[in-house]
Amino acid sequence: MAYNKKQQFKSRRTSLMSQISDGAIIIGASHNSPRNNDVDYEFRQNSTFWYLTGFDEPDAVLVLRPHHKDQCVIFVNPYDPQFEIWVGARLGVDAAPENLEIDAAYPISELDDQLPRLLEDIETVHYSIGSDSKLDDLMMNLVQKRRGLSQRGGVHLLRIEDPKPAIDRMRLVKSEAEVELVQAAIDVTRVGFENAMRVTKPGTFEYQVQAEMESHFRKLGSVRNGYPSIVASGTNSCILHYINNREQLKDGSLLLIDAGAEYDYYTADITRTWPVNGNFTPAQKEVYEIVLASQSAGINAISPGIEFNEVHIASLRVLVQGLIDLGALEGSIDGLIESRAYLPYYMHGTSHWLGLDVHDAGPYRDEDRSISLEQGMVFTVEPGLYFGNQATESPEHLKGIGIRIEDNVVVTTEGHSVLSGTILSSVSDIEELVGSV
Ligand code: MN
Ligand code: MN
Question: 260 and 193 in contact (C-beta within 8 Å)?
């Protein structure tokens, strides 16, 4: 368990309290989720709770009260010697304040009694209703109780507001330390991809390539993936979130892998597409070069001050021109974008925020405009072209081809930096590496 970097978590709480300076802020941790009998699914803390605490145990509740003596209070599972024998040590109530740089800690079993007391003179509670059914119930009871009391006067109604927009806005702009963690996740992911390319050959199963890649993730310090790996060969490459990963690689087809190692809670999100036998066919290569050029156009557009959506438009224009050149579409770039005629071949966005979550927190729009890019924003650029079953008008020789190339970028003061730029993507580099074991 990582209780280091306490100051960083504390300063985030301070910053949040300077933005939401009235009342109280309540954030719940994740709970274990049962798989069967006494076995749970692997636990991972929800990212916002982690972002504010660095605490990776289930069931905890964080209560921030900007204007109270105990500003920062946490409810945790108690230390339990029996639990330690079976599962491992919990931090416990006594050790929590010092370990988490928090003012006071209580056992979670006291939440029902302590929370009304902590919120006694508070009018506004910032809590995301719907995020936790137990906390939802508690808040509803409090609201009801307060309503009854206010009838007799002297007690205010309890107002509930959502702190999510403020927290998400904080999470959107990454500190240098956070960018370093994303970089670390990417560096691990790079080694996994290179080895996946090396072992790719006809006859291998998708999950076997996956095992090779993920074994390198683990060896290099990534305890889990940021999301389930997409290892999609042949026409599976046209299925955007294919995670079945059970098919055998066929000579002459492509393999698309979209994967990211998680490193200290931050994830990479990388996609590469390569030929199973190490050589692109002319048709595969033609589509590949279009997607690669589209990605370059998107990346080159990135600098502080431009709108987020401009990256998408820059990439999309190259894709649409490519679809015209390939004979898949007819018309002008502007007309085809206007009519969205490209949708059968390109149906997803070009970019999303990246950080603690693969589709990270943060707004994409500011009022009625696409959000302006700022230094420290980290996101993907991932154009693709898919000639799957949905693209019924596909030229015959392109059918079954699905190609996506995804890299991760940070906005800098000057422009941008491609954090995953060392993961090879040119046709010649890929052809050299694939199957080279
Ligand atoms: Mn991806
Ligand atoms: Mn992505």
Answer: no
